[in-house]
Specification:
14% of the residues are buried. Strands 1, 2, 3 and 4 form a 4-stranded antiparallel β-sheet that branches. β2 and β3 form a beta hairpin. α5 packs antiparallel against α6. The chain is an alpha+beta fold. Helix content is 49%, strand content 23%.
Length: 167
Amino acid sequence: MLHAGKPATATETAPGAEAAEKAETADVGAHGQEAEAEAEDGHGAKPQGGHGAEVAKDDSALDWFKFPTQFFVPILRNGTPTAIMVLSLTVEMPASARPEIEAQEHRLRDALLNALMIEANTGGFEGNFTSDPAQQRLRAALLAAAQNAAGPSVKRILIEDIGRQQQ
């Protein structure tokens, strides 16, 4: 039972956990010598591959390049600046591609800023620009621009910060 102001323990948060723990302890006690022998000859050892190993391998191979400065995009209405969009962007890529991406930082920044200005000029930052469809459209445009500038090693463009400052 949980009590206000008292931290929950494993047995309080998971009903039946105590019984399961006792069963595990009994199993280890009854088969302790067998389990040790199986582990030594390879039987009963934890699998080295499997679905989890592939995911972990792929995830560890990713790297991120964060642009050191924010992107500032003017919003114009009838030729007059009405707001500024401020964004912090990061490039997701394979770890092996990091030197190549860093070497193309300026080309990437130019391509992303160009895509952001196209979004601004076509109304992409008007209204609810944080809605899911608007964000998906923006992410797709940024990814296409980044891949055109730096190649297919760019896997995603992460929008870490986004804000609109009215003038």
